[in-house]
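Chain A, query sequence.
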Amino acid sequence: MSHTKAALKNSYKVFVLTAVAILVGYLLRIYLSRALSIEDFGLFYAVTAFVALFVTLQDFGAGISLAKFISEFAVKKLYTQIKSSILIVLVIQLVILLICNAAVFIFADAISLMFFKTIEASIVLKLLMLSLLFSSVFRIFQFTFQGFQRMKLFAIVEPVRISLAFVLSVLLIYMGIIGVAYAYFLAAVITTVVFFLPFLKMFDGFFKIEANMTKKLTKKLMLFATPVFIGTVASFAILYIDTIMISFFMTLRDVGLYQVAIPTSQFLWVFVTTISMVLFPMITELYTKKKTELVGTNISIFANISFFVTIPFAVILMAFPEIIVSFLFGHDYIGSVAALRILVVGSLFYSIFYLFQNSLMAIGKPTISTRIIIEIAVFNFILNLLFIPMFGIIGAAVTSTLSYFLASLISYRYLKKFVTFKISFGRLARILLSAIITVLVLLFVKGLLVMDNQILEAVLSLVPSFAVYIVLIFATKSVTRRDLEYFRKLGLRLPRWLG
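Chain A, predicted structure.
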């Protein structure tokens, strides 16, 4: 597995930098929740969700297409083709964005009153739309870095952008929500400037190479980009349509509450997305060598370990949501707790879905992967349309959870057609039983401790409870030492106390 271990090194680098971006983004959200009113906080993220639609449209799947073909052209040293591809994608994206910006600027006031119910959204909408013009440029730099296998540069772009947005938001917060919008706009401008020099240094002689933007090359890029674009639009529907519908049917306060619940529950995604970075190259290598039995073994082991690691954090979020939300965001956001609990369950299903979906991509079945996302997107849209007007953010949370549950079942069914693997439901049941016992121990210990300091009470309750969880996991053989040793052989660093 030499190729796999090499891929692991790059995966770790990308993961660390991605984790930094996620953490900074979450800290920025916490800061804004305390610096802005709950209505302004909700308004900003409602507009952000709306603008995300145009991010999807402007990319048109061309970013991933660009990374793929740059990688191919670089091997053959076809630098004219590389430059031409970059310029084709840049022109297409800028034309789309200019048209979208023109439409939004003309109808900004009407959109603000219709969707966000306040004219204040107009200037925020305009600034975020303008920022996309610069974002399209640094995103092209980013995909070019990926195509040339410069993964550190590829992964560091987003941490730089979100860190700049954080710093500038703090400096401009005196302007309120408009100051935050300016911060995002300036962050996009500065990020573009910052990565222009590394781009030129990596692509030596960019301005000297003659471009040849042919119809044939454009068609080649777009043929690959189109199915990716369809999948991206469907993914947008799953991730953002709930926030847009809450903005339309409910109040900005509801948006604010939901935008606390959503990212907090999504912390449960971190492990499975990380582990999938490791799994992807491994499955690709094994499947190419027709070692399908080993592919199935890897999927089974990774599924068990993912569930084992994710469950404890789900327990924390389920047991102490009031403490977590009030400590991080303030007491005003306690109304998000019920939705958060539901979304935690949804995140567990998402972890399973993501693992299976990623495995389908790894064995070369992107069309099936896209089909699944489209099916779930349609289901998600219809349920949100029915549930949100009746049940508000609870309806949105239930819809997301049901969508991820259905997605995990469908992806499991498709994956079984190509790979023989067995998910040990007995093991999963034992992990779940261990988690339930852990919750009971947690509630018992919590009941014995009556303390004014809720955070200290939570810590003192969690320590013995999770000691019980670890003991139960190994006592019931839900996870074995053989599983852990397998991960260590791959180069994953696991705590020694696990065995």
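Residues 1-249 form one domain. DSSP finds 18 helices and no strands in the chain.
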